[in-house]
Amino acid sequence: MATLFGLMDPSGQLSLYKRDRSEFVAVEQVSGSGPRGRDAVIFVPPSDVNLQRVPLNARNERDARRAAPFAVEDDLAQSPEDVHVALGSEDGEGGRLICSVRQDVMDSWILALREKGAADASLCVPQTLLADNQYVQGSQGAFGRLEDRYFAIDSNAPGEWLAGLLQTSDSVARFEFGDDADAYLGHVVDLYQSGAGIDLRQGSHAVRTPLDLSRVKRWRLAGALAAVLGIMWIGIQIWSVQNLNALSADLERRSVDVVQAGWPDLNGNVDLALQDIRVSGNRGGAPFPSAVIATAALYDAIGQIEASELRNLRYDRERGQVLAIVAYSDFADSNRLAGLFEGTGLRARVGDARQSGRQVVAELVLEVGS
Q1: Helix (H, G, I), strand (E, B) or coil at 223
Q2: Strands across the sheet with 40-43, in order?
Q3: Is 309 in contact with 294 (CB distance < 8 Å)?
Q4: What digits encode the pLDDT tens for the residues 207-246?
Q5: Is 9 exposed, middle or buried (0-12, 13-18, 19+ CB in 10 A)?
Q6: pTM to 2 decimals?
Q7: What are the start-end ranges of the H helices in 219-269?
Q8: 359, containing H or E segment
Protein backbone atom coordinates (compact mmCIF):
# COMPACT_ATOMS: atom_id res chain seq x y z
CA MET A 1 0.00 0.00 0.00
CA ALA A 2 1.20 3.50 -0.84
CA THR A 3 2.40 5.51 2.16
CA LEU A 4 3.71 8.57 0.38
CA PHE A 5 1.88 10.80 -2.10
CA GLY A 6 2.82 13.79 -4.20
CA LEU A 7 1.47 16.48 -6.49
CA MET A 8 3.33 17.49 -9.64
CA ASP A 9 2.50 20.99 -10.85
CA PRO A 10 2.62 22.02 -14.56
CA SER A 11 6.10 23.53 -14.08
CA GLY A 12 7.48 20.15 -12.98
CA GLN A 13 7.75 21.09 -9.30
CA LEU A 14 7.09 18.06 -7.09
CA SER A 15 5.59 18.32 -3.60
CA LEU A 16 5.62 15.24 -1.37
CA TYR A 17 3.23 14.46 1.47
CA LYS A 18 3.13 11.71 4.04
CA ARG A 19 -0.29 10.76 5.30
CA ASP A 20 -0.69 10.96 9.06
CA ARG A 21 -4.18 9.63 9.81
CA SER A 22 -6.49 12.25 8.25
CA GLU A 23 -3.79 14.84 7.59
CA PHE A 24 -0.94 15.19 5.10
CA VAL A 25 2.48 16.30 6.28
CA ALA A 26 4.86 17.81 3.72
CA VAL A 27 8.26 16.07 3.39
CA GLU A 28 11.34 16.96 1.38
CA GLN A 29 12.71 13.53 0.55
CA VAL A 30 11.43 9.98 0.27
CA SER A 31 11.89 7.83 3.36
CA GLY A 32 10.16 4.65 4.49
CA SER A 33 8.35 4.17 1.16
CA GLY A 34 10.26 1.24 -0.21
CA PRO A 35 13.52 1.37 -2.15
CA ARG A 36 13.73 4.37 -4.51
CA GLY A 37 10.18 5.41 -3.53
CA ARG A 38 8.62 2.26 -4.99
CA ASP A 39 5.56 2.67 -2.71
CA ALA A 40 5.05 6.36 -3.49
CA VAL A 41 2.29 7.65 -5.80
CA ILE A 42 2.58 10.97 -7.60
CA PHE A 43 -0.42 12.63 -9.28
CA VAL A 44 0.60 14.37 -12.49
CA PRO A 45 -0.95 17.61 -13.85
CA PRO A 46 -4.22 16.57 -15.56
CA SER A 47 -3.88 19.21 -18.30
CA ASP A 48 -0.58 17.68 -19.51
CA VAL A 49 -2.14 14.31 -20.34
CA ASN A 50 -4.45 13.61 -23.25
CA LEU A 51 -6.96 10.76 -22.84
CA GLN A 52 -8.89 9.02 -25.57
CA ARG A 53 -10.61 5.65 -25.82
CA VAL A 54 -9.97 3.88 -29.13
CA PRO A 55 -10.07 0.29 -30.39
CA LEU A 56 -6.67 -1.39 -30.67
CA ASN A 57 -6.28 -4.57 -32.67
CA ALA A 58 -2.96 -5.99 -31.53
CA ARG A 59 -1.59 -9.47 -30.89
CA ASN A 60 0.03 -8.56 -27.59
CA GLU A 61 0.69 -5.70 -25.19
CA ARG A 62 3.93 -4.72 -26.89
CA ASP A 63 2.26 -4.34 -30.27
CA ALA A 64 -0.61 -2.42 -28.68
CA ARG A 65 1.81 0.08 -27.14
CA ARG A 66 3.52 0.56 -30.49
CA ALA A 67 0.24 1.17 -32.29
CA ALA A 68 -1.29 3.45 -29.64
CA PRO A 69 0.48 6.75 -30.61
CA PHE A 70 -0.63 6.36 -34.21
CA ALA A 71 -4.20 5.56 -33.15
CA VAL A 72 -4.49 8.99 -31.48
CA GLU A 73 -2.21 10.81 -33.92
CA ASP A 74 -4.96 13.22 -35.04
CA ASP A 75 -5.37 14.53 -31.50
CA LEU A 76 -1.67 15.11 -30.88
CA ALA A 77 0.26 18.30 -31.44
CA GLN A 78 3.51 16.31 -31.86
CA SER A 79 4.61 13.42 -33.98
CA PRO A 80 3.82 9.97 -32.53
CA GLU A 81 7.56 9.34 -31.99
CA ASP A 82 7.72 12.27 -29.53
CA VAL A 83 4.87 11.01 -27.35
CA HIS A 84 4.86 8.57 -24.43
CA VAL A 85 1.72 6.49 -24.01
CA ALA A 86 0.22 4.37 -21.24
CA LEU A 87 -2.69 2.01 -21.77
CA GLY A 88 -5.67 1.11 -19.66
CA SER A 89 -7.26 -2.31 -19.59
CA GLU A 90 -9.45 -3.45 -22.48
CA ASP A 91 -13.18 -2.81 -22.14
CA GLY A 92 -15.91 -5.18 -23.26
CA GLU A 93 -16.00 -3.72 -26.78
CA GLY A 94 -12.27 -3.97 -27.53
CA GLY A 95 -11.57 -0.32 -26.76
CA ARG A 96 -8.68 0.86 -24.59
CA LEU A 97 -8.09 4.13 -22.83
CA ILE A 98 -4.86 5.72 -24.12
CA CYS A 99 -3.03 8.27 -21.97
CA SER A 100 -0.53 10.29 -24.00
CA VAL A 101 1.98 12.88 -22.79
CA ARG A 102 4.85 14.65 -24.50
CA GLN A 103 8.08 12.69 -24.12
CA ASP A 104 10.04 15.72 -22.89
CA VAL A 105 7.41 16.40 -20.21
CA MET A 106 7.54 12.76 -19.10
CA ASP A 107 11.33 12.97 -18.90
CA SER A 108 11.13 16.08 -16.72
CA TRP A 109 8.78 14.27 -14.32
CA ILE A 110 11.16 11.31 -14.04
CA LEU A 111 14.00 13.75 -13.31
CA ALA A 112 11.93 15.41 -10.57
CA LEU A 113 11.31 11.98 -9.00
CA ARG A 114 15.02 11.20 -8.96
CA GLU A 115 15.83 14.52 -7.31
CA LYS A 116 13.46 13.62 -4.48
CA GLY A 117 14.83 10.10 -4.12
CA ALA A 118 11.68 8.56 -5.60
CA ALA A 119 12.94 7.34 -8.98
CA ASP A 120 10.60 4.31 -8.94
CA ALA A 121 7.42 6.08 -7.80
CA SER A 122 4.17 5.66 -9.73
CA LEU A 123 2.86 8.52 -11.90
CA CYS A 124 -0.92 8.41 -11.74
CA VAL A 125 -3.23 10.28 -14.15
CA PRO A 126 -5.95 11.92 -11.98
CA GLN A 127 -8.66 11.81 -14.71
CA THR A 128 -8.49 8.00 -14.78
CA LEU A 129 -9.61 7.89 -11.14
CA LEU A 130 -13.05 9.30 -11.92
CA ALA A 131 -16.33 7.55 -12.50
CA ASP A 132 -18.56 8.77 -15.32
CA ASN A 133 -20.09 12.26 -14.90
CA GLN A 134 -17.70 13.48 -12.22
CA TYR A 135 -15.82 16.75 -12.02
CA VAL A 136 -12.99 17.77 -9.70
CA GLN A 137 -11.45 21.19 -9.16
CA GLY A 138 -8.37 21.64 -7.02
CA SER A 139 -4.79 22.84 -6.81
CA GLN A 140 -3.89 21.01 -10.06
CA GLY A 141 -6.68 22.65 -12.06
CA ALA A 142 -10.02 21.24 -13.13
CA PHE A 143 -10.67 17.90 -14.77
CA GLY A 144 -13.59 15.59 -15.29
CA ARG A 145 -15.23 12.70 -17.07
CA LEU A 146 -18.48 13.34 -18.89
CA GLU A 147 -20.16 10.39 -20.61
CA ASP A 148 -16.80 8.59 -20.92
CA ARG A 149 -15.13 11.69 -22.39
CA TYR A 150 -12.22 13.10 -20.44
CA PHE A 151 -11.16 16.73 -20.14
CA ALA A 152 -8.69 18.81 -18.14
CA ILE A 153 -8.40 22.60 -17.81
CA ASP A 154 -5.58 24.39 -16.02
CA SER A 155 -6.28 27.02 -13.39
CA ASN A 156 -5.66 29.90 -15.83
CA ALA A 157 -8.40 28.89 -18.28
CA PRO A 158 -11.50 31.14 -18.54
CA GLY A 159 -14.41 30.00 -16.38
CA GLU A 160 -16.77 30.12 -19.37
CA TRP A 161 -15.03 27.10 -20.88
CA LEU A 162 -15.69 25.02 -17.83
CA ALA A 163 -19.29 26.16 -17.53
CA GLY A 164 -19.90 25.26 -21.13
CA LEU A 165 -18.49 21.77 -20.65
CA LEU A 166 -20.54 21.05 -17.54
CA GLN A 167 -23.80 22.17 -19.21
CA THR A 168 -23.47 19.31 -21.72
CA SER A 169 -24.46 16.80 -19.04
CA ASP A 170 -27.62 16.87 -16.92
CA SER A 171 -26.21 15.44 -13.71
CA VAL A 172 -22.57 15.95 -12.79
CA ALA A 173 -21.08 15.18 -9.39
CA ARG A 174 -18.90 18.17 -8.51
CA PHE A 175 -15.96 18.16 -6.09
CA GLU A 176 -14.49 21.64 -5.74
CA PHE A 177 -11.67 22.33 -3.28
CA GLY A 178 -10.39 25.76 -4.36
CA ASP A 179 -6.86 26.30 -3.05
CA ASP A 180 -7.14 23.75 -0.25
CA ALA A 181 -4.34 21.39 -1.37
CA ASP A 182 -4.81 18.99 1.57
CA ALA A 183 -8.51 18.51 0.86
CA TYR A 184 -7.86 18.02 -2.84
CA LEU A 185 -5.03 15.54 -2.20
CA GLY A 186 -7.15 13.64 0.29
CA HIS A 187 -9.91 13.28 -2.31
CA VAL A 188 -7.66 11.96 -5.11
CA VAL A 189 -5.88 9.64 -2.66
CA ASP A 190 -9.23 8.16 -1.63
CA LEU A 191 -10.10 7.67 -5.30
CA TYR A 192 -6.72 6.04 -5.91
CA GLN A 193 -7.10 3.64 -3.01
CA SER A 194 -10.43 2.52 -4.41
CA GLY A 195 -8.45 0.63 -7.06
CA ALA A 196 -8.82 2.84 -10.13
CA GLY A 197 -6.22 4.81 -12.07
CA ILE A 198 -3.63 4.38 -14.85
CA ASP A 199 0.07 4.56 -14.10
CA LEU A 200 2.22 6.28 -16.72
CA ARG A 201 5.21 4.09 -15.76
CA GLN A 202 4.82 1.77 -18.73
CA GLY A 203 6.94 0.86 -21.73
CA SER A 204 10.36 2.52 -21.68
CA HIS A 205 9.53 4.22 -18.37
CA ALA A 206 8.34 1.06 -16.60
CA VAL A 207 9.79 0.33 -13.20
CA ARG A 208 11.87 -2.82 -13.16
CA THR A 209 10.62 -5.46 -10.75
CA PRO A 210 13.25 -6.11 -8.06
CA LEU A 211 14.48 -9.62 -7.38
CA ASP A 212 12.63 -11.01 -4.38
CA LEU A 213 15.26 -12.66 -2.21
CA SER A 214 12.90 -13.54 0.66
CA ARG A 215 12.04 -16.88 -0.89
CA VAL A 216 15.63 -17.52 -1.81
CA LYS A 217 16.61 -17.35 1.88
CA ARG A 218 14.24 -20.22 2.64
CA TRP A 219 16.14 -22.41 0.24
CA ARG A 220 19.61 -21.47 1.40
CA LEU A 221 20.15 -24.76 3.27
CA ALA A 222 18.87 -26.84 0.36
CA GLY A 223 20.98 -24.79 -2.03
CA ALA A 224 24.05 -25.22 0.16
CA LEU A 225 23.51 -28.99 0.35
CA ALA A 226 23.02 -29.14 -3.41
CA ALA A 227 26.22 -27.16 -3.91
CA VAL A 228 28.14 -29.51 -1.57
CA LEU A 229 26.78 -32.58 -3.34
CA GLY A 230 27.65 -31.03 -6.70
CA ILE A 231 31.21 -30.33 -5.56
CA MET A 232 31.51 -33.88 -4.19
CA TRP A 233 30.24 -35.33 -7.47
CA ILE A 234 32.74 -33.26 -9.44
CA GLY A 235 35.49 -34.37 -7.04
CA ILE A 236 34.56 -38.03 -7.49
CA GLN A 237 34.61 -37.64 -11.26
CA ILE A 238 38.03 -35.99 -11.14
CA TRP A 239 39.33 -38.72 -8.81
CA SER A 240 37.92 -41.43 -11.10
CA VAL A 241 39.57 -39.92 -14.16
CA GLN A 242 42.89 -39.56 -12.34
CA ASN A 243 42.64 -43.14 -11.03
CA LEU A 244 41.90 -44.47 -14.51
CA ASN A 245 44.81 -42.51 -15.91
CA ALA A 246 47.08 -43.96 -13.20
CA LEU A 247 45.87 -47.49 -13.93
CA SER A 248 46.37 -46.96 -17.64
CA ALA A 249 49.91 -45.67 -17.07
CA ASP A 250 50.68 -48.63 -14.78
CA LEU A 251 49.34 -51.11 -17.35
CA GLU A 252 51.40 -49.49 -20.07
CA ARG A 253 54.51 -49.64 -17.87
CA ARG A 254 53.96 -53.33 -17.08
CA SER A 255 53.42 -54.09 -20.76
CA VAL A 256 56.72 -52.43 -21.63
CA ASP A 257 58.47 -54.46 -18.89
CA VAL A 258 57.07 -57.70 -20.33
CA VAL A 259 58.14 -56.76 -23.86
CA GLN A 260 61.63 -55.80 -22.68
CA ALA A 261 61.96 -59.20 -20.96
CA GLY A 262 60.52 -61.28 -23.80
CA TRP A 263 61.64 -59.26 -26.83
CA PRO A 264 64.83 -57.42 -25.84
CA ASP A 265 65.55 -56.35 -29.39
CA LEU A 266 62.22 -54.47 -29.70
CA ASN A 267 63.19 -51.81 -27.09
CA GLY A 268 59.85 -52.13 -25.29
CA ASN A 269 57.65 -51.58 -28.37
CA VAL A 270 54.38 -53.24 -27.36
CA ASP A 271 52.77 -52.98 -30.80
CA LEU A 272 55.66 -54.82 -32.48
CA ALA A 273 55.56 -57.51 -29.80
CA LEU A 274 51.83 -58.08 -30.36
CA GLN A 275 52.45 -58.27 -34.10
CA ASP A 276 55.17 -60.88 -33.53
CA ILE A 277 52.80 -62.96 -31.38
CA ARG A 278 50.16 -62.93 -34.10
CA VAL A 279 52.72 -63.93 -36.77
CA SER A 280 54.08 -66.71 -34.56
CA GLY A 281 50.58 -68.07 -34.02
CA ASN A 282 50.09 -68.37 -37.77
CA ARG A 283 53.27 -70.40 -38.35
CA GLY A 284 53.07 -74.15 -38.87
CA GLY A 285 54.24 -76.66 -36.25
CA ALA A 286 54.10 -76.33 -32.52
CA PRO A 287 54.25 -72.70 -31.52
CA PHE A 288 56.36 -71.52 -28.63
CA PRO A 289 54.25 -70.32 -25.66
CA SER A 290 54.36 -66.65 -24.90
CA ALA A 291 57.46 -65.33 -23.22
CA VAL A 292 55.37 -64.46 -20.16
CA ILE A 293 54.11 -68.07 -19.78
CA ALA A 294 57.57 -69.53 -20.29
CA THR A 295 59.07 -67.10 -17.77
CA ALA A 296 56.33 -67.92 -15.27
CA ALA A 297 57.04 -71.64 -15.65
CA LEU A 298 60.74 -71.00 -15.10
CA TYR A 299 60.11 -68.99 -11.93
CA ASP A 300 57.82 -71.73 -10.65
CA ALA A 301 60.45 -74.43 -11.23
CA ILE A 302 63.25 -72.45 -9.58
CA GLY A 303 61.04 -71.86 -6.58
CA GLN A 304 60.79 -75.60 -6.00
CA ILE A 305 64.55 -76.05 -5.68
CA GLU A 306 66.03 -74.90 -2.40
CA ALA A 307 68.70 -72.18 -2.49
CA SER A 308 68.29 -71.62 -6.24
CA GLU A 309 68.06 -68.28 -7.99
CA LEU A 310 67.64 -66.74 -11.46
CA ARG A 311 70.53 -64.48 -12.39
CA ASN A 312 69.83 -63.61 -16.02
CA LEU A 313 66.98 -64.01 -18.51
CA ARG A 314 66.50 -63.21 -22.18
CA TYR A 315 64.28 -64.36 -25.03
CA ASP A 316 65.53 -65.44 -28.48
CA ARG A 317 62.61 -64.60 -30.74
CA GLU A 318 64.13 -66.14 -33.87
CA ARG A 319 64.80 -69.53 -32.25
CA GLY A 320 61.79 -69.46 -29.98
CA GLN A 321 63.87 -70.03 -26.83
CA VAL A 322 64.11 -68.58 -23.35
CA LEU A 323 67.75 -68.40 -22.27
CA ALA A 324 68.52 -68.18 -18.55
CA ILE A 325 71.43 -68.35 -16.19
CA VAL A 326 70.49 -70.08 -12.94
CA ALA A 327 72.36 -70.86 -9.74
CA TYR A 328 71.76 -73.68 -7.23
CA SER A 329 73.65 -75.49 -4.48
CA ASP A 330 74.45 -78.87 -6.11
CA PHE A 331 75.16 -80.28 -9.58
CA ALA A 332 72.34 -82.79 -9.04
CA ASP A 333 69.86 -79.94 -9.04
CA SER A 334 70.43 -79.57 -12.80
CA ASN A 335 68.52 -82.76 -13.56
CA ARG A 336 65.88 -81.93 -10.95
CA LEU A 337 65.31 -78.51 -12.55
CA ALA A 338 65.01 -79.97 -16.06
CA GLY A 339 62.60 -82.62 -14.85
CA LEU A 340 60.21 -80.04 -13.41
CA PHE A 341 59.25 -78.94 -16.97
CA GLU A 342 57.90 -82.35 -17.96
CA GLY A 343 54.21 -82.14 -18.81
CA THR A 344 54.33 -78.36 -19.35
CA GLY A 345 54.92 -78.54 -23.10
CA LEU A 346 58.42 -77.14 -22.57
CA ARG A 347 61.80 -78.84 -22.58
CA ALA A 348 64.72 -77.63 -20.49
CA ARG A 349 68.35 -78.22 -21.47
CA VAL A 350 70.98 -77.46 -18.86
CA GLY A 351 74.57 -77.03 -20.00
CA ASP A 352 77.91 -75.42 -19.17
CA ALA A 353 77.42 -75.93 -15.43
CA ARG A 354 80.35 -74.71 -13.29
CA GLN A 355 81.15 -74.24 -9.64
CA SER A 356 81.13 -70.63 -8.49
CA GLY A 357 81.92 -70.40 -4.81
CA ARG A 358 79.34 -72.38 -2.91
CA GLN A 359 76.87 -72.42 -5.85
CA VAL A 360 76.67 -74.12 -9.18
CA VAL A 361 76.01 -71.74 -12.09
CA ALA A 362 74.54 -73.14 -15.30
CA GLU A 363 72.98 -72.06 -18.57
CA LEU A 364 69.37 -73.22 -19.11
CA VAL A 365 67.55 -73.25 -22.43
CA LEU A 366 63.72 -73.49 -22.54
CA GLU A 367 62.13 -74.52 -25.81
CA VAL A 368 59.12 -76.39 -27.18
CA GLY A 369 59.05 -79.91 -25.88
CA SER A 370 59.32 -82.79 -28.37
Answers
A1: helix
A2: 23-27, 14-20, 4-8, 40-43, 122-124
A3: no
A4: 876 655 555 566 778 888 899 999 999 999 999 888 888 8
A5: middle
A6: 0.55
A7: 220-262
A8: strand 359-368
